[in-house]
Write a structure and sequence with these properties.
Low-confidence stretches: 1-30
Family: Belongs to the ABC transporter superfamily.
Distance between the termini: 51 Å
Keywords: ATP-binding, Cell membrane, Membrane, Nucleotide-binding, Transport
Pfam families: ABC_tran
Strand order of the largest sheet: 5-6-7-3-8-9
CATH superfamily of the largest domain: P-loop containing nucleotide triphosphate hydrolases
Helix content: 25-40%
Mean pLDDT: 86
Number of strands: 9
Organism: Pigmentiphaga soli
CATH topology of the largest domain: Rossmann fold
Shape: globular
Structural class: alpha/beta
GO molecular function: ATP binding
Number of domains: 2
Largest sheet: 6 strands, mixed
Length: 288
């Protein structure tokens, strides 16, 4: 059964959901543990040899929060995201989403996933790509489910409903992918470097867009990124991972006020957080 949050989201203009957004935990108040990763390990067998991708990783996400994972290439960031999404199963430890195993959360359509590539179907229009999950599960926009049209407005592509993916820029394609991930109103939105292939200017614009969308939906969000500045700008908390095998090197709380603006990037507090994360990444590198 879906959580009570399904009927408590703030309405998107023209959408089906009604009510107001659930309040985020007050600063300094009790944490509402929503996603829990408990001492998770992941090993693969490659050519008959054991390969450890993750080792003893623990983290928690509060309901309605925005967190980021950062670490060197190959440290298991994407693997961890796939474990939470039930695409892979851990070889050690456990994961829960509001007390449920990921398999149950996925079956209940509580998880949305945005990949590095937009992975849109090239023969389907923008609106039809957004509606694809509804068709797969045999659902129609109704109570508790955003309509594709309302999500099109939310991601700023209202005039592109009948466009094909090849007629869109990379940033616009990723907006469609985000809308598609939200159409079943997931409780958790997992994003695996969705802006990694974009130029710096477009990437920064997409950061603002994603935060605006998150403010509207208040979906619990977890972003994998290689950009320190992006991790700080977007997040309430940054999880810094070490080089392979991936371990949690440091948890960095981000106490910058919201809503975030470009002015926050020029503050001493922002620079200090960037330096803290950079130092943690260097500590997590293997020693020569």
């Amino acid at each position: 059964m879906r959580s009570a949050r399904s009927s408590g989201l703030r309405a998107i203009p023209g959408g089906a959901a009604a009510g107001t957004a659930p309040a985020r935990p007050a600063p300094g108040g009790p944490a509402q543990e929503f996603v829990k990763v408990d001492r998770v390990g992941m090993r693969f067998d490659i050519g008959g040899k054991a390969f450890t991708a993750l080792d003893d990783v623990s983290l928690t996400l509060e309901r309605g929060s925005f967190a980021a994972i950062i670490g060197p290439s190959g440290c298991g960031k994407s693997t961890l995201l796939r474990l939470i999404a039930d695409i892979l199963q851990p070889t050690a430890g456990s994961i829960s989403i509001e007390g449920l195993p990921p398999a149950q959360a996925r079956a209940d359509r509580r998880i949305g996933f945005v990949f590095q590539e937009a992975t849109l179907l090239p023969w389907r229009t923008v609106i039809d790509n957004i509606a694809l999950p509804l068709e797969i599960v045999g659902a129609r926009p109704g109570a508790g489910i955003y309509s594709p049209q309302s999500l099109l407005r939310l991601v700023g592509l209202e005039g592109f409903a009948q466009a094909l993916p090849q007629q869109l820029s990379g940033g616009m394609q990723q907006r469609v992918a985000i809308a598609r991930a939200l159409v079943l109103q997931p409780d958790v939105l997992l994003m695996d470097e969705p802006f990694g292939a974009l130029d710096e200017i477009t990437r920064q614009k997409m950061n603002f867009e994603l935060l605006r969308i998150w403010e509207e939906t208040r979906t619990t969000a977890l972003l994998v990124t290689h950009s320190i500045a992006e991790a700080v700008f977007m997040s309430d908390r940054v999880y810094v991972m070490s080089a392979r095998p991936g371990r949690l090197e440091q948890v960095v709380p981000v106490d910058l006020p919201r809503p975030r603006t470009a002015a926050h990037m020029r503050t001493p507090g922002f620079a200090e957080l960037v330096n803290t994360i950079r130092d943690a990444l260097l500590r997590g590198e293997p020693q020569a």
